[in-house]
UniProtKB/TrEMBL annotation:
Keywords: ATP-binding, Carbohydrate metabolism, Kinase, Magnesium, Metal-binding, Nucleotide-binding, Transferase
Species whose genome carries this gene: Castilleja foliolosa
Location of the GHMP kinase N-terminal domain: 117-205
Domain GHMP kinase C-terminal positions: 327-403
GO biological process: monosaccharide metabolic process
Protein name stated in the entry: Galacturonokinase
Organism lineage string: Eukaryota, Viridiplantae, Streptophyta, Embryophyta, Tracheophyta
MF GO annotations: ATP binding; kinase activity; metal ion binding
InterPro entries membership: GHMP_kinase_C_dom (IPR013750), GHMP_kinase_C_sf (IPR036554), GHMP_kinase_N_dom (IPR006204), Mevalonate/galactokinase (IPR006206), Ribosomal_Su5_D2-typ_SF (IPR020568), Ribsml_uS5_D2-typ_fold_subgr (IPR014721)
Length: 434
């Protein structure tokens, strides 16, 4: 199977035509922001502890077509949500109190469920850093159908898309690193979401054919090239596809203990280990615990804390080994590490719920699959897998059949079109403006 180009010319034309109709301008004037979704093959649940994580973008995501308006007016319509967003680019934006994209408390008769908060948040972030935003936009935004709430960082992709559009309209030159901070301001300060910078970093820094590696403690990143992307001839390098297998769960099924409890347990484990090793003055993060100190003092941890710490240290090792496997073109070893990450997420980090765990177990048995894990915490959404490109269709068929046997109701909720249960994707590039 060859690589699937995204966005296609037909997708771009739909966006351009819509914006032209909204603005009364020629479709040739329409600019389009391409903001891809991301996956994290290795590095599950360790970013909040300062661990090392890996990421890449896929050829699905957010498209935002726009033209600069004639003044400060902002007008945006959405393919997914009702109503339209209207405000002025020179208005001061004030932070929300924990608002989310689909927070019902933020709904109005003109704008379904406050979906425009990410656009307002982008303006807030730019204003917060002293940018003088005077130029509005007329735009139309759409996301890959059915991929919201799937653990693919659609919210970060939306925020990045609005940032790039406002910056373009106002002729601002902003680096990817600055935009990572701007998107953090959207999510942490404007919307009140307590997440890190992994998602927007992957979306803004990734490069096709590379694995993006981020040290969440130092905030340093690097791109790990495969032999193919380095122009090396490697006959053993196998072509792969990325599978997205959907559970049908849109609302998170949180088991006990909850996700926030796990983060607290990681910090408690770090505190005990740091005290035992004479480093109690350091912030209680597992990244501040020397691996040798962990091995020496892990007997001091109770069962729950021991599991959380074991996941952190073993996952960090898997990331390091995975980067080496990727760089050498060893996709089989890379896949084994992904599956081991998925298993540790279930056994040591104790995330996931029954449907997602069943889906994970089906994926690792599917023909041609190198490795699989949850996309996110496994409480809703999908699992991801790396699969032999020549066997992707067979794997997808196997997954649909087996998951429908175990979860017929959830399978029916995905879509009448069974093809939507498993999507076959390619790696992609970073967010850009066309």
């Amino acid at each position: 199977m060859g690589a699937m180009r995204w966005p296609s010319e037909s997708e771009l034309n739909v966006i351009r035509t819509k914006v032209a109709e909204m603005s009364g301008r020629d479709s040739k004037e329409v600019r389009v922001v391409v903001s891809p979704y991301r996956i994290c093959p290795l590095g599950a649940h360790i970013d909040h502890q300062g661990g090392i994580v890996s990421a890449m973008t896929i050829n699905k995501g957010i498209l935002l077509g726009f033209v600069p308006s004639d003044d400060s007016q902002v007008l945006i319509q959405s393919a997914q949500f009702k109503g339209e967003v209207r405000f002025c680019a020179d208005e001061e934006q004030l932070p929300k109190t924990g608002a989310k994209l689909n927070d019902s408390s933020n709904c109005s008769s003109h704008e379904e469920c406050g979906w425009g908060n990410y656009a307002r948040g982008a303006l807030y972030a730019l204003q917060k850093r002293g940018n003088n935003i005077k130029q509005g936009i007329i735009g139309y935004i759409c996301g890959a159908e059915g991929l919201d709430s799937s653990g693919l960082s659609s919210s970060a992709a939306v925020g990045v898309a609005y940032l790039l559009a406002f910056e373009s309209a106002n002729k601002l030159i902003v680096s990817p690193t600055e935009n990572i901070e701007y998107d953090r301001l959207i999510e942490n300060e404007y919307l009140g979401l307590k997440n890190g910078i992994l998602d927007q970093s992957a979306i803004l820094l990734s490069s096709y054919g590379c694995l993006t590696c981020m040290n969440c403690k130092t905030k340093e990143h690097k791109l790990i090239h495969s032999p193919e992307s380095n122009g090396q001839n490697n006959e053993t390098k196998k072509q792969f596809k990325i599978l997205l297998a959907f559970s049908g769960l849109k609302q998170a099924l949180i088991s006990n203990p909850g996700y926030n409890s796990r983060v607290a347990e990681c910090r408690e484990a770090a505190k005990i280990l740091l005290q035992a090793s004479g480093n109690e003055g350091l912030e209680p993060l597992l990244s501040n615990v020397d691996p040798e100190a962990y091995e020496e003092h892990k007997v001091r941890l109770d069962l729950n804390l021991a599991r959380r710490a074991e996941h952190y240290f073993s996952e960090n090792r898997r990331v390091v080994k995975g980067l080496e496997a990727w760089a050498s073109g060893n996709i089989e070893e890379f896949g084994k590490l992904i599956s081991a990450s998925g298993l540790s997420s279930i056994q040591n980090y104790e995330s996931g719920c029954e449907p997602l765990i069943q889906l994970y177990e089906i994926l690792v048995k599917a023909p041609g699959v190198y490795g699989a894990r949850f996309s996110g915490a496994g409480f809703r959404g999908c699992c991801i897998a790396f699969v032999d490109g020549d066997r992707a269709l067979d794997a997808a068929s196997f997954i649909r059949k087996e998951y429908t046997k175990l979860q017929p109701e959830l399978a029916r909720q995905i879509d009448d079109d069974e093809e939507r249960m498993v999507l076959i994707c390619d790696a992609a590039d970073c967010a850009c403006l066309i």
